[in-house]
Amino acid sequence: MKNSSALLFDMDGVILDSMPWHVRAWRKALAEFGCKVDEELIYLHEGAIEPATAADIFHRNGCCMDEEQFLAVLSRQIEIFNREFRHKVTVYRDVPDMLASLGHTGKKLAIVTSSHSDILEEVLPQNVRSLFSAIITGDSVDRRKPWPDPYLAAMKNLGQTSETCCVIENAPAGIESARAARMKCIAITTTLSPQHLKKADLVVESHRHLQEVLCQTGTPKQQSKRFR
User: Fold this and answer.
1) What pLDDT, on the 0 to 100 scale, is given for residue 186?
2) DSSP 37-99
3) 75 plus 178 within the same structural domain
4) What is the DSSP string of 113-146?
5) Is the preceding omega at residue 146 within 30 degrees of 0, hence cis?
6) Could you tell me if 38 and 12 lie in one domain?
7) How many domains does the chain have?
8) Among the ranges 24-33, 188-197, 207-216, which has the highest mean pLDDT value?
9) Smallest Cα–Cα separation from 18: which of 120, 148, 101, 109?
10) 128 has which bridge partners?
11) Range of the domain at 59
């Protein structure tokens, strides 16, 4: 991964401490449509909001739902999130320094998120947004995660290849998207335990550990003790 010249970051759960609020909004929206699901199901399928994929996930977990109904739930989730929870979202404490350090190394940075552009503009502070050379949102691609389209769009925008890109994710759908795009992937355990992230090339425990890997600080022996 030290040869990666571009780093592609998921937003929710990687840059922003936002997932608990998205989960609450999802559960409220689903309840209005007569569906009740465990929090873990939402965390496990974070970012997988392609209508056919998402409708099938909910259907297999006890919610009778087709693509049209899912889009209605998604619309309501966005409304609830914006009204009740958006103001509670924060940037993870160690992220600004990490991004600034990476910028000094000359690596190109991008955000690749399933969130819509209007949500991103509301929750991502300008001082953090300005550190990225490209931003790909869910409404800017034909197919969202777990399809490879979002990461391929970021790659093209940055003038890179799959071999020169490394993805940072926190959820299985994002990892699957990165793998489908033939990119290396690091997963961080902000929202899920390592057992759910094992398809990533590397799993790290915190943003500080992530920075050590991305900036190549610490000796290999030190890193072997601190990364799984």
Assistant:
1) 98
2) --HHHHHHTTT---HHHHHHHHHHTT----HHHHHHHHHHHHHHIIIIIGGG-EE-TTHHHHH
3) no
4) -SS-HHHHHHHS-HHHHTT-SEEE-GGGSSS-TT
5) yes
6) no
7) 2
8) 188-197
9) 120
10) none
11) 19-87
Length of the chain: 228
Give the pLDDT confidence of 100-109 residue by residue, as tens digits. Answer: 999 888 899 9
Q: In whole angstroms, what separates CA 221 from the centre of its chain?
A: 29
Given 53, 87, 121, the domain boundary residue is 87
Distance between CA atoms of 193 and 197, rounded to whole angstroms? 7
In the numeric block, which tokens belong to residue 75?
């619309």
Classified as helix, coil or strand, 205 is coil
Reported as a single tens digit per residue, the pLDDT across 167-204 is 999 999 999 999 999 999 999 999 999 999 999 999 99
Residue 1 is assigned to a structural domain of this protein: no
The string of pLDDT tens digits covering residues 90-132 is 999 999 999 999 988 889 999 999 998 998 999 999 999 999 9
Question: What is the greatest pairwise CA distance in the chain?
Answer: 53
**Does 116 share its domain with 180?**
yes
The token pair at 40 is 């873990």
Evaluate whether residue 108 is within a structural domain.
yes
The token pair that represents 86 in the structure block: 């958006």
User: Residue 18's pLDDT is what?
Assistant: 96
Kindly tell me the burial class for residue 82, based on how many C-beta atoms sit within 10 Å of its own C-beta (0-12, 13-18, 19 or more).
middle
Closest CA to 19 of 213, 141, 153, 189: 189
Domain CATH number, residue 214: 3.40.50.1000
